[in-house]
């Protein structure tokens, strides 16, 4: 029963949601909206559980003086201080809470994102080495696309932006669509397997 | 003489008046009807008019009402309007007038109509037929697999390498890092990743290796924890299961990326599995993993992130292969049959594309018309 009940719930919900998709009636829309609301409520509860988990893991790290335990002190302090500031000081645009978000969290996120440029450069350097015929084709294509995207490209050869556009909108897009078609079929098959109770790995274990 | 002038004035003004009136009489028709395939919240009004004028003025009233309420002024090029501010079941009448600078024509009025909610969206009939067709193929192959029919499934290198990757971690005495993407549990890619996590965790438990699963979503964290726990139980090693090694990190994308990069650098895992849906953080994670010397297997259906994984990882499971992974690893015939159904689905799509190409060259829109979802 421990396993059967979740499977029955999944099957009924799955079939219900498929049927709902084809019914434009307000009752059907209300059921859909209600389901979405449930998901939001459940997510909120899980977030509390997740934060609880962060507390436990970091607390244990500090207690057992594991390697990097002082980082856990920073994590927990930041979590507690930010939460207290938000609860007692409010979260409107001029609050300290928003200042923390705007002047600490956002710049840190932007810094992480900007690292991507360097990672792209190192990854590109590795993949563009013309060791095999495929890598040579990749190198040539990448060079054309990169040059076609910057002003100097059209100075070198006026037709370069056009060639770049053709590579992106025809060659690259055709391959992408091929993958996307497979993804579409795969996601339907996976959904069907879950709804029919054939795929049970997500419940943990086999039988 | 006076009468003569009066008659002349009358003729002149009548002429001007007649010129000023748009050619509405006999040329305009209006039709209001319940908008098809909706929840009964709108009425569609369509009209035909071939004369001159500047704008249309659309009016509405309920049947019981006497006063017309102006709804909208529309350009002469417009010939339809969807009134989505109606009450279901109430009967409405619509009227239209043509306006010039000085004159407003007489109103042409529609028959009374009310908005009704539909129980089936006929515009989605084709989708239903295709889903049912695909469902039938799936059921057929599941039935065939149950009867013992052998199904040939092509090799997927990335999935075959999973054994080697887990074995390598065991030999090196280092942990395995499993990242189930950064999407939520409602994403099929995340479900597929969780489906792979089950067999991987079982193998990890059998070998007695460490498994780390940092999560970006609290629900995914809970599910992955449960899956790993069950797998350890199934492998007969529940003593090795440590719930603190499958945890929720943060729901902020780049904070999560930073945390996972930190784990990679500190823990130096021998194997990194990046499976699920990824966004811009994909390369941050894959490049950091690459720099630590770990064997990396990535799998995603995010087409934009695939080139990054191909560049930085040892094996990449592409698109639909990710969905097939659970079945491939379990070797369960009923699950494998779905991969076969997918292949037949692809053949059907390829055949349709080919037919569309030929018909397109013959300048026929027949297939496009059939396949258009309204």
Features:
heterodimer; A: 207 residues; mainly alpha; 7 helices; 81% helix; B: 374 residues; alpha/beta; Immunoglobulin-like; Rossmann fold; 3 domains; six-stranded parallel sheet; five-stranded antiparallel sheet; 11 helices; DUF6754 (chain B); Ig-like_fold (chain B)
Can you give me a brief rundown of this structure?
The complex is a heterodimer of chains A (207) and B (374). Chain A is mostly helical.
What does this molecule look like?
The complex is a heterodimer of chains A (207) and B (374). Chain A has 207 residues and is mainly alpha-helical. Chain A has a domain of 72 residues. In chain A, 81% of the residues lie in helices and 0% in strands. Chain A has seven helices and no strands. The model of chain A has no long low-confidence stretch (mean pLDDT 90). In chain B, strand 9, helix 4 and strand 10 form a beta-alpha-beta unit. In chain B, 46% of the residues lie in helices and 19% in strands. Chain B is built from eleven helices and 14 strands. Chain B is an alpha/beta fold and 374 residues long. A six-stranded parallel β-sheet of chain B has the order 11-10-9-12-13-14, with helices on both faces. In chain B, strands 3, 4, 6, 7 and 8 form a five-stranded antiparallel β-sheet that branches. Chain B has three domains: 92 residues, Immunoglobulins (Immunoglobulin-like, Sandwich); 53 residues, no CATH class; 181 residues, Rossmann fold. About 3% of the residues of chain B have low confidence. Chain A: Keywords: Membrane, Transmembrane, Transmembrane helix. Chain B: InterPro entries: DUF6754 (IPR046642), FN3_dom (IPR003961), FN3_sf (IPR036116), Ig-like_fold (IPR013783). Chain B: This is DUF6754 domain-containing protein. Chain B: It holds the Pfam family DUF6754.
């Amino acid at each position: 029963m421990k396993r059967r009940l979740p499977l029955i719930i999944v099957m009924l919900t799955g079939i219900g949601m498929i049927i709902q998709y084809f019914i434009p009636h307000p009752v059907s829309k209300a059921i859909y909206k209600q389901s979405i609301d449930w998901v939001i409520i459940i997510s909120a509860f899980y977030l509390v559980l997740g934060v609880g988990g962060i507390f436990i893991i970091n607390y244990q790290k500090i207690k057992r003086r594991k390697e990097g335990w002082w980082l856990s002190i920073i994590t927990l302090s930041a979590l507690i201080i930010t939460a207290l500031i938000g609860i007692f000081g409010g979260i409107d645009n001029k609050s300290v809470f928003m200042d923390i978000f705007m002047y600490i969290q956002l710049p840190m996120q932007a810094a992480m994102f900007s690292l991507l440029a360097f990672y792209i450069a190192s990854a590109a350097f590795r993949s563009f080495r013309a060791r095999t015929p495929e890598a040579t084709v990749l190198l040539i294509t990448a060079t054309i696309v990169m040059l076609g995207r910057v002003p100097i490209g059209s100075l070198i050869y006026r037709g370069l932006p056009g060639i770049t556009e053709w590579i992106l909108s025809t060659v690259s897009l055709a391959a992408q669509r091929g993958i996307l078609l497979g993804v579409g079929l795969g996601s339907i098959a996976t959904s069907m397997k879950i709804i029919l109770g054939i795929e049970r790995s997500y419940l943990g274990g086999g039988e | 003489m006076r009468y003569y002038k009066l008659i002349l004035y009358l003729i002149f003004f009548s002429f001007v008046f007649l010129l000023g009136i748009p050619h509405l009489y006999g040329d305009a028709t209006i039709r209001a009807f319940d908008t098809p395939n909706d929840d009964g919240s709108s009425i569609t009004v369509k009209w035909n008019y071939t004369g001159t004028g500047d704008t249309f003025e659309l009016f509405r009233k309920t049947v019981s009402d006497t006063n017309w309420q102006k709804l909208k002024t529309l350009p002469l090029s417009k010939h339809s309007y969807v009134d989505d501010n109606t009450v279901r079941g109430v009967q409405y009448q619509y009227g239209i007038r043509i306006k010039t600078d000085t004159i407003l024509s007489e109103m042409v009025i529609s028959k009374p109509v009310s908005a009704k909610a539909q129980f089936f969206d006929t515009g989605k009939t084709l989708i239903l037929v295709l889903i049912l067709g695909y469902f039938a193929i799936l059921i057929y192959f599941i039935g065939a697999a149950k009867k013992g029919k052998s199904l040939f499934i092509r090799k997927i290198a990335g999935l075959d390498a999973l054994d080697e990757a887990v074995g390598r971690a065991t030999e090196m005495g280092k942990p395995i890092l499993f990242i189930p993407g950064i999407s939520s549990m409602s994403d099929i890619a995340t479900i597929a990743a969780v489906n792979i996590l089950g067999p991987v965790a079982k193998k990890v438990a059998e070998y007695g290796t460490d498994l780390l699963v940092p999560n970006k979503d609290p629900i995914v964290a809970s599910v992955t924890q449960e899956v790993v726990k069950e797998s350890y139980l199934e492998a007969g090693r529940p003593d090795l299961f440590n719930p603190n090694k499958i945890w929720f990190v943060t729901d902020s994308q780049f904070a999560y990326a930073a945390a996972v990069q930190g784990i990679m650098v500190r823990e130096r895992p021998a194997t990194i599995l990046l499976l699920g849906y990824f966004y811009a953080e994909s390369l941050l994670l894959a490049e950091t993993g690459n720099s630590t010397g770990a064997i990396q297997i990535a799998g995603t259906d995010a087409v934009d992130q695939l080139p990054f994984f191909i560049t930085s990882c040892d094996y990449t499971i592409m698109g639909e292969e990710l969905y097939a992974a659970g079945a491939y690893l379990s070797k369960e015939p009923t699950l494998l049959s779905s991969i076969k159904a997918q292949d037949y689905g692809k053949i059907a799509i390829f055949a349709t594309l080919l037919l569309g190409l030929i018909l397109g060259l013959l300048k026929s829109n027949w297939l496009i018309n059939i396949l258009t979802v309204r």
